[in-house]
Every structure is written in C-alpha cells, then in structure tokens.
Amino acid sequence: MPVVAVIGGGVAGLTAAFLLKDAGVAVTVLEGSPRLGGKLAVSEVGGVAVDAGAEALLARRPEGVGLIDELGLSDQLVQPGTTAAGIWTRGAIKPLPRRQFMGVPADIDELGGTGILSADGVARARQDLTLPATEPHGDVSVAERLGARYGLELVDRLVEPLLGGVYAGRTDDLSFNATLTPLAEAAHGRSSMTQAAASLMPPAPAPGARDSLGQDAVAADGQRTVFTTLAGGLGIVPGALAAASHANVRTKSMVRELVRTTTGWRLTIGSAHAPEAMDADAVIISVPATPASRLLAATTSTGASELSEIKYASMAIVTLAYPPNAFPTPVTGSGFLVPAVDGRTIKAVTVSTNKWPHLRPTAGDLHIVRCSVGRFGEQAVLQRDDSELVALAAADFASATGVIDEPVDARVSRWGGGLPQYSVGHLERVARIRAAIAAQPGLAVCGAAYDGVGIPACIATARLAVDQVLAHLAGRMPAQ
User: Contact at 8 Å (CB) between 180 and 174?
Assistant: First the structure.
C-alpha cells in the first residue's frame, strides 16, 4: 500500500489526511508541536468555551460548510445574531456601511452618512465615479490602486481596518490582486471601482431564505449572514478531522529534513541526536512558508527561495469576560474595527455574546469580548506580557464603549507568525512555487500561504494537493 506523509497538523494538513481516507493509501500526519489544529483551538474564558483562534467560517464558500457536513457536524452550525459592525474612529463607533466590499464602497451616499470619513474625504471618494477608468499594468498594492481612485483617507479609515482584520497586514504592502481578487476581476471593463463593488453585492435575501445546508440565511437583525460557526467552537474541527481520517496522527514529530530517494521521499523526524527516518511514496507539505522553504531547500532551490519571500505577521487574541452590569449603556452589534492611523492597541473587537447567541446560555449574564492585537511590523506590543496585553485591550475597549468594570476573567492567545502576508506579486509568486513543486513527482503543498487565509481556502488547497499526489500515485500503478 502506498504511503503518504502529511507534514503539518493544521486544518489544511488534517483535511488532506481526511480526504485520503478512502484512497487506498496509508497516511501519517506529522505535527511538530504538542497539539493539532494550527490556528484553531477552543478553551474556556469565564466558564464559556470560546475559540482562541479563528472563530467564524465564511458561509458562502462551499468548502468549509461542505467539510463540516462530511464530518457529520452540520447539526452544530449556528448563525450570528447580528452582523452589524462598526468602525471606532474619531472618538465614536461609526456604523460600517452595509454596501461595501472589504471597505470599498458600493454606495458613496451611504458611506457619507456613516461619519467615518470627513467631508473632504467623502468628496475625494466620490471622484471615483467621474475619474477615467484605470487599468494598472501588473500587480500593485491596495493603497496604490484604491488610493488613486478614492484617496488615502478612505483607504486608511475603512479598507485598512477590514484587511487588517483578515491579514494583520498593511495596505501599502498587500497585493490588490491577491487580497481583493473578486474586486480586481470585477473592475475590468467598468468605469469606476464603486460600480465594481456594487456588482459584487448579493441581492437581499427573501424572508425565510435558507442556505444549502438548511440554515437560516438571515441573521436575527434581518441581514444576510456571511459567517457561520459551530456551537462547540471551530476549535473542535481538528480533532474531528483527525479521528475521521483514520490516519496515523503524531504530534511532537518535527520533520527536520526531506530528500528524494529512488522510489519516493525520505523524511527525517525528531532531534539531531535521535533522528528517525521515514520513507513515503508521496508527501504533502502543510506548514507555513518559512519551514516549508527549509524542507525544500535540498530539493528545489527555486521553490524554497520563493517560499522564503512570504512574510508573516504575528498577532494575539485577548478574550475578556465582563460582569453583568459592566456596560452602563448596552453595546449593540457584533463588534468594531479600529484604523491603524488612530494609534490604538486593539485592531478589532468582537462582542461574542452579541454575535453568537448560542453562547448566552453558558455565559449567563457575562459579556464575552474578543480583542485582536498586532499588525505586521508591530512586534513591540506583542512583546508585552499577558497581564499588560489584557490591561491595554481592556483600556481601549473601555474608551470605545464606556464599560465601567474590569473583566472578571481573561485569556491571551498568541499566534506568532500566524498570518501570511500576500504582498505585491503574491499570485505570481505562488504560481512559481507550484510550478517548482509540480516538477517534483509525489510532492504537493497546501495551507494558508497560497490562495487565502480563511478555512475554506485552506480546505481548497488541501483538495488540490490530494488530487496531485493521487494522480502521481495512479501513474505509478501497473496497468490492470
């Protein structure tokens, strides 16, 4: 029976193992850390089980909800109670425009009514409607492309907070084509970026509309749902994948070296003074770009070099539990984002017990709040100890909302090097990486470094990797 080694036990690697379960191969998953799941984990704060990493799944992409259905977990899918979010800027929480794509407005009049931009900023943004159409030659940064159309105030106050929440990156570095791909495609042949954004707006859902898994397509506040999650937290997915894959899943098994052999691949596992060798017919690498680059250095210098160019941002999630009467004025909505130009420690806040009503029976009267901290290049703030991060996040949250009490419990979840940066030229870089990998029979890569940082995108890369290695193995099988 052919042997497939999967290096990395995050959601992409575990999905690959799961997809291989009926392929007639023996699968071993090798995870270097003591736990599975990568950036998916769940633990208690204030007695409430809350995700410590990713806490929502993009509902309109089929890969995530489809995999959950395959795992038999679709009965645990829950919808948000509210999708209304805001931007905390200029001393107040302003409503996020509903008709926008990652901060790019589909309706300038609605944008003007939010108060996020100054009058001059709105006037400059409106120029997108009358400026000549522009088609850049090659990839450019988000700031360059959108700043030319709308002005930098809109980029700084609206686009940057939304992209920062996804990538923890900066708009003057992030690739327009790689991070806003649907908008980049929609902009072709249209005279304004606003028209392109409007073309991406979904129609208003009909009353009682259901999605493909029978879930309500409308949140309790009447808005179309974009995200979903699991009642037990997305952190339960890795364990479910590992169990359902029937693979040999090993933690604390760091792969130190990967080399080609005459029949396949040899992996060196463990420490230098007690190495373990493992032979495999095919290998799927599902670790971040930097360790992937090191593993490939002896096999494909081009692939290794290109992978080394992908940088990563570190960040932390500070989860706070507040007592029942901490909010003199009720905090409504699912949370808010914070522009980097305002100089705050926090970059985003989710009021979890507002966004996810299923948490309330366990939380009782507690308010559970998740604060995101850290952007690319902001190492100093993350070097503070946990108690300092909790104090800084709580102080910012109090400034934004007027909360009068200290949290009764807190948890700091640090994700060092957790988010790949899709810098200018990322799509071309990934194409070169995949071309270099394709030249190595029985080798594939998957994970967040390539086609998207969300869970559905990671699942899609795992499916692609599995297809590649199975095609290789099928080509090696003798004709029947």
Answer: no
Question: 62-70 and 11-19 are packed helices; what angle lies between their axes, rounded to 10 degrees?
Answer: 60
Whole-Å CA distances, 100 to 93, 193, 286, 375:
17, 11, 33, 23
Domains in the chain: boundaries: 3-37+237-310+422-476, 56-83+312-420, 100-199
Tell me the pLDDT tens digit for each residue of 232-257: 999 999 999 999 999 999 999 999 99
Distance CA 471, CA 344 (A): 50
**Burial label, 478 (beta-carbon count in 10 A; 0-12, 13-18, 19+):** exposed
Calpha distance 349→401 (Å, rounded):
11
Q: For the domain covering 56-83+312-420, report its CATH number.
A: 3.90.660.20
- Write down the CATH number for the domain with range 100-199: 1.10.3110.10
What φ, ψ does residue 148 adopt, rounded to 5°? -65, -30
- pTM beyond 0.70: yes
Please spell the DSSP secondary structure of 22-71, one letter per residue.
TTT-EEEEE-SSSSS-TT--EEEETTEEEESS---EETTSHHHHHHHHHT
* Sign of the dihedral defined by the CA atoms of residues 393, 397, 403, 407, in that order: negative
C-alpha span between 36 and 11 (Å, rounded):
8
Distance CA 36, CA 251 (A): 7
First to last CA, the chain: 16
Q: Which residues contact 299 (CB under 8 A, 6 or more apart)?
A: 258, 259, 260, 440, 443
> Using one digit for the tens of pLDDT, what is the confidence trace for 125-148?
999 999 998 887 889 999 999 999
CA-CA distance, 286 to 29, in Å (whole number)?
10
Residues 30/256, Cβ–Cβ less than 8 Å = no
Q: How many CA atoms lie within 13 A of 435 on its CB side?
A: 9
